[in-house]
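User: My collaborator sent over this chain with a note saying "see what the structure looks like." That's all I know about it. Can you take a look?
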Amino acid sequence: MSQDNIELMVDEPIPGHYYWMLLKEETPDHHPQAVDYAEGPLPSYSAAMMAGIAALQRRADLRTDDGSVPVVTGFIDPRPGFADSGRGGLHH
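Assistant: Without extra context I'll predict from the sequence alone. Here is the result:
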């Protein structure tokens, strides 16, 4: 992750409770820091992903000086069982 990039992560620390986080590499030791996050759990991976994408879009809109709106895209892994692997936590 470069210093100019923000990464969207979705975590499921408790089964059925999904949280999105926006992470940015801001420290010299290259550990990502949360710059925005869900204030409460969402009921599904998809809902958390969409809420995180909306937060990314709001950040992009605030940074745009010329009035144009940048395109923010998201990726949801289409592999069966990826979000429901039963491992909980972050999926790598």
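A starting point for your reply to your collaborator: Confidence is low (pLDDT under 50) at residues 82-92.
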